[in-house]
């Protein structure tokens, strides 16, 4: 292969890469500040009404976006959050600490489909919406119930509601053995947010797809979310 051929191939690869990147618009509709976390992407303070846009490369997998609450960071971007903290960094390099609501996705996977979901497997801290906003794909996911206000006593945590796996760390709740089913606690989440993951094997009713190249929005406190959480912030 000649040098010019290699250069042309690399240029075409880069063009393909950027033309198929997905744009994620992350908006804070809450009446309080939320610090968005994203892997890949890092993190951003979002005051009420602010939006943060991310360009994510085609083929990205095991990715997530989540809200963090009650954070304090110094000028170097170091500090802590009550919920969703990522090793004390404003610009997250790893996943957040439960409890936190999750928007998860993998781009351009099987048959060039994007797979996306809202997960409560790490618990809940802020109402969330995860929806496509381009390409004719319209089926989104919302979890807007007052989960913090109704959280079972066993799962309550400062600023949020834990998933039972975080609290009990057993096969029954964490599915470590790969052999588990719904529980009393997972049904608590499922009854309130039927489209969200409530336990690790909850795939059939909780994973959604769009064609590769679709853009998305993630909204903290969608317009119809119950705002009782504000009293805890």
UniProtKB/TrEMBL annotation:
<dbReference type="Pfam" id="PF00314">
    <property type="entry name" value="Thaumatin"/>
</dbReference>
<comment type="similarity">
    <text>Belongs to the thaumatin family.</text>
</comment>
<feature type="disulfide bond">
    <location>
        <begin position="165"/>
        <end position="174"/>
    </location>
</feature>
<feature type="disulfide bond">
    <location>
        <begin position="30"/>
        <end position="221"/>
    </location>
</feature>
<dbReference type="InterPro" id="IPR001938">
    <property type="entry name" value="Thaumatin"/>
</dbReference>
<keyword id="KW-1015">Disulfide bond</keyword>
<feature type="signal peptide">
    <location>
        <begin position="1"/>
        <end position="21"/>
    </location>
</feature>
<dbReference type="InterPro" id="IPR037176">
    <property type="entry name" value="Osmotin/thaumatin-like_sf"/>
</dbReference>
<keyword id="KW-0732">Signal</keyword>
<feature type="disulfide bond">
    <location>
        <begin position="86"/>
        <end position="92"/>
    </location>
</feature>
<dbReference type="InterPro" id="IPR017949">
    <property type="entry name" value="Thaumatin_CS"/>
</dbReference>
<feature type="disulfide bond">
    <location>
        <begin position="143"/>
        <end position="193"/>
    </location>
</feature>
<feature type="disulfide bond">
    <location>
        <begin position="71"/>
        <end position="81"/>
    </location>
</feature>
<feature type="disulfide bond">
    <location>
        <begin position="151"/>
        <end position="161"/>
    </location>
</feature>
<feature type="disulfide bond">
    <location>
        <begin position="175"/>
        <end position="180"/>
    </location>
</feature>
<protein>
    <recommendedName>
        <fullName>Thaumatin-like protein</fullName>
    </recommendedName>
</protein>
